[in-house]
Amino acid sequence: MRRRICAGNWKMFKTASEARAYVDRFADLLPTIPSSVETILCPPFTALPAACEASRGRIPIGAQNMHWENSGPYTGEISAPMLLELGVQFVILGHSERRQHFGETDEMVRRKTAAALQSGLQPIVAVGEPLDVRERGDAAQYVTSQVRAALEGLPNTAFTDLVLAYEPIWAIGTGRNCDPSDANEMMQSIRSCMPQLRNVPLLYGGSVKAENIAAYARTSDIDGALVGGASLDPDGFARLAAAL
Ligand code: PGA
């Protein structure tokens, strides 16, 4: 059976002290979430130490980005060993906001994914099409090409630690979530574009809420969610994870 995962992407929200308060509250709510659902919290870099400390191993913590080199002259960047030392276990890579605002290319996402896996972090690799691509009917081709580009050259054994997130750009933060059957159809295209993806957890992201998560969870190929806005409140996110 594939893993069920509910990951909260906090984006550029919450200071270290806010993260600590969130994690303390969320840990109290863990008994309300079935243990079959893995919940992951992804705070901004500066809040990672506080989140890891407060979690005390109870909730896996993820970062939202990293560099592909372990160290070097890359001002403003953070590497996998720096994250691992804090106790970080996951890292979101290739989020559309990074591709859009910070110029991340498929090639950079590929290097980051390989580096994360090599150092023992589990990458949550995000892909997704803009609205014009969806409207001209090319979404599956666009997204599967992003997936192949990000995963090219990985050894088969690396796929055990990989998570993929399909987030149509037009659905992120807009309240306009993708129809669950359309999202599921995309997951099937993703899963069949590389045979190694058969057992890889595929998350849907884009305006997921406690009210709509069940419709995604009931489909054949959606294994969980990557949640932005609706992950910022611990009570709401716990309800969402329980509904998954
Ligand atoms: P959203 O963001 O849930 O606020 O739409 C999802 C994401 O960007 O990961």
Oligomeric state, counting identical vs distinct chains: single chain
| Beta strand count | 8
Q: In sequence order, what are the helices and strands, one letter per element?
A: EHEHEHEHHEHHEHEHEH
What small molecules accompany the polymer chains?
Answer: 2-phosphoglycolic acid
Shape: globular
In percent, how much strand structure appears in the residues?
5-15%
Mean pLDDT: 97
Let me know the largest β-sheet. Answer: 8 strands, parallel
Strand order of the largest sheet: 2-1-8-7-6-5-4-3
Structural classification: alpha/beta
Secondary structure elements and pairings:
Elements: E1 4-9, H1 16-29, E2 37-42, H2 48-55, E3 62-63, H3 80-86, E4 90-93, H4 96-102, H5 106-119, E5 122-127, H6 131-135, H7 139-151, E6 163-166, H8 180-193, E7 202-205, H9 213-217, E8 224-227, H10 234-243
Parallel strand pairs: 1-2, 1-8, 3-4, 4-5, 5-6, 6-7, 7-8
Helix pairs in contact: 1-2, 1-10, 5-7, 7-8
The structure holds 2-phosphoglycolic acid.
Please tell me about this protein's structure.
The protein is an alpha/beta fold. Helix content is 40%, strand content 15%. The chain contains ten helices and eight strands. An eight-stranded parallel β-sheet has the order 2-1-8-7-6-5-4-3. Helix 1 runs parallel beside helix 2. The longest helix is centred in the first third of the chain and has 14 residues. The chain starts with a strand and ends with a helix. 2-phosphoglycolic acid (PGA) binds next to strand 8.
